[in-house]
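Operator note (shift B, R.M.): manual run for Serine aminopeptidase S33 domain-containing protein requested after the automated queue skipped it. Running by hand, logging everything below so the morning shift can see what happened. Input copied straight from the record, untouched. If output looks odd, do not overwrite the archive copy; leave it for review.
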Amino acid sequence: MLSWILSLFGWRKNNRLPSSAPPWESIPHFTNAVKQRLRTKYWEEENPRAVVFILHGAGEHCQWYDVIAKPLNAQGITVCAHDHVGHGMSEGDRVHINAFSDYTRDVVQHLDIIHKKYPESPVFLLGHSMGGTIAIKTLLDYKDLPVKGVILIGPAVLPNPETVSPVKVFLAKVASKLGPQLEISPIKPEWVCRDAEVVKKYTEDPLVWHGGLKARMASELIDAMEDLSKRLAEFTHPFLLLHGTDDKLCDISGADLFDKETGSTDKTYKKFEGAYHQLHNEPEGVGPQCIQEIVDWVVHHM
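Run finished. Output pasted below as returned.
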């Protein structure tokens, strides 16, 4: 009965488990606190001047950030990332979590690995979309982490009122208890980027999750946004904030609020007129400009 009611609002039940396990002996990874193996990706430079730790968005995976990593490498900067639990090649039910702290817990563990591997290099977080939420929540909940600054690309700070109605919020919170793996309507690929080739790549990528966000994950993400939006004055790290004015997935009002309410004294906020969600892949020169902003900011803050 619950499934039928939720289906009226674009919800559907999905019990698909991860695809067959990759050959872990040949894929870099670490094992998290609950014994799940998470795929890692390192774009390494010898004796790096700095390290940028990328946190990818919902449904995607870390390989999508090669376009950012290589220009950073050119400046002697190592780039690290992992596929969040339930994403890409990492273990776990697809896009499902028990609590949002599952994500932040894994980030803290990976940060410890990075710090031990590069003890002399300053570390920066880069979070895109939900990865931005994870970055902000991690630094709010773990105050003493060795992180020098944060880059946020289209972060999820407030629910988008055009796609997340109060009815869907209510249903997500109910379903997260009764049917945590029920799905909300999938992300529309055409909202990801204005570049048709990027949309095609996204649609055909087998490691991208093409179903809807699960009820528990959606509920936990909403709760995380509600929590961080009340605690922005506690956020004091230097940051670079980049957002497209026509982003249909993460509402720009969240970026406006973050810029206005944070306690940071070193803040840079740039808006890209008409741009969509994946700023780093946007056409008309926006992608290269976004990436150059990131490189310049990191180099300046090293």
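Quick read of the result: Residues 37-164+232-301 form a domain with the Rossmann fold fold (CATH 3.40.50.1820). DSSP finds nine helices and eleven strands in the chain.
Leaving this for review. - R.M.
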